[in-house]
Design brief:
By secondary structure, the chain is of the alpha/beta class. The chain has helices at about 60-75, 120-130, 145, 190-200, 215-220, 230-245, 255-265, 290-305, 325-335, and strands at about 5-10, 25-30, 35-40, 45-50, 85-90, 95-100, 105-110, 135-140, 150-160, 165-170, 170-175, 205, 225-230, 250-255, 270-275, 305-315, 340-345, 365-375. It folds into three domains: about 5-50, no CATH class; about 60-160, Transcription Regulator spoIIAA (2-Layer Sandwich); about 165-375, Vaccinia Virus protein VP39 (Rossmann fold, 3-Layer(aba) Sandwich). The strands form four sheets. Strands 14-13-12-15-16-18-17 form a seven-stranded mixed β-sheet, sandwiched between helices. Helix 4 (about 190-200) runs parallel beside helix 5.
């Protein structure tokens, strides 16, 4: 009864009354006992996304109540931030929906077909709470195709500009809601951005820098920051944000991260702090060995750039890579790099991205900060 909230196609026995289209369904066990109500899609491998375990048919009122509860939680865990996640799908009891707030704008991603009839009620609740200037539906995720939904990006309310600015830890950052990663920025790392900034000094290197969530915070304390990314557009946004913050000690480099780290290590370069925030290397469980090898490669190269007192902030957003696996990988990389590491911090995603204890997929981000205390 309190298991995982997804029911996969292989676990479903259908009957003559099973809907042929996405719909709300009553879910029961083999013995006929009620298991709850959920969102059903015959076209998806996730056949049912459970919404409630009670004998409580799904109504707009329930989803409005869930939206209000999500908003109230953010009043507590995101106080003082202009940008944060308002709705985090299953973790807020609203399966298949994520909503991020960037100042006076909302950007949502919807990927559960059976939730569609309830979206107007959810939107009304969000508008009543935040009075946004604009709401953008960033519905271009590949997951949409798996649900039989069209991939599209559309303004649902008001107007939404191509670039959104917001303040995080006293710095102005930029998000690209129409074309950027996720809904335009990595709000799950917001607290880790700030932490890395407090650890910065001397010469800093930010790999996979994207729009500079880490690089900009590093630049407030470090003497020099090099931000590396393979995307021309992302680096253009980073340079624009650096100028907006009056940061002249930040240089951007367009390069493949693996090649750049290898070249720097081979050249005997040294940095005082390195940040690694790569994209997810493991898209599925079968990719785990290759992903751990890739994580080890970049962490090994980064550690070779650090001497005694050097700091490494390293992250994984691969949900199939557990914190234990990631930490074991880091220990192996440190051994091969002949570095002794002291743990400074071990974290996950920001609290506006809450987790369900019965759904491991909702804990996907691992962030570890370490300091080199010996080289042997």
């Amino acid at each position: 009864m309190l298991g995982h909230p997804w029911v996969f196609d292989s676990d479903v026995l259908t009957g003559s009354d099973t809907p042929a289209e996405p719909a709300v369904v009553r879910v029961q066990g083999l013995n006929g006992a009620l298991l709850g109500y959920g969102l059903y899609n015959p076209a998806s491998k996730i056949r049912v996304r459970m919404v409630t375990r009670h004998d409580q048919p799904l109504t707009a009122a329930l989803f409005i109540e869930r939206t209000g509860a999500a908003i109230n939680l953010r009043h507590e865990v995101a106080a003082g931030y202009e940008a944060f996640r308002v709705i985090n799908s299953e973790a807020d009891g609203l399966p298949g929906l994520t909503v991020d707030k960037y100042g006076p704008y909302l950007v949502w991603q919807h990927h559960a077909a059976a939730l569609t009839p309830f979206l107007p009620a959810i939107s009304d609740a969000l508008q009543a709470a935040y009075r946004p200037i604009g709401i953008l539906a960033r519905n271009d995720s590949p997951v949409r195709a798996l649900e039989g939904l069209p991939r599209e990006v559309a303004v649902m309310h008001g107007t939404v500009p191509e670039l959104l600015s917001y303040v995080e830890g006293g710095l102005t950052l930029l998000a690209a809601p129409y074309t950027g990663q996720k809904t335009g920025a990595f709000l799950d790392q917001r607290k880790n951005h700030v932490l890395a900034g407090t650890l910065a000094r001397g010469r800093a290197l930010d790999m996979f820098s994207y729009h500079g969530g880490f690089a900009l915070h590093l630049a407030r304390r470090a003497e020099q920051v090099i931000a590396v990314d393979a995307s021309t557009a992302a680096l253009a946004h980073l340079n624009r944000a650096a100028a907006a913050n009056g940061l002249s000690n930040l240089t951007t480099v367009e390069s493949d991260a693996f090649s750049y780290l290898r070249a720097q290590a081979d050249a005997g370069e040294r940095f005082d702090i390195v940040v690694l925030d790569p994209p997810a290397f493991a898209k599925g469980r079968d990719h785990l060995p290759a992903a751990l090898a890739a994580y080890k490669e970049i962490n090994l190269r980064a550690l070779k750039l650090l001497g005694v007192g050097g700091r490494l902030c390293t992250a994984s957003c691969s949900q199939h890579v557990s914190e234990a696996d990631f930490q074991a990988m880091l220990k192996e990389a440190a051994s091969d790099a002949r570095r002794v590491l002291r743990l400074v911090a071990r974290r996950g995603q920001a609290p506006c991205h809450p987790e369900l204890l019965n759904m491991p997929e909702t804990r996907y981000l691992t962030f570890i900060a370490v300091e080199v205390i010996d080289v042997f």
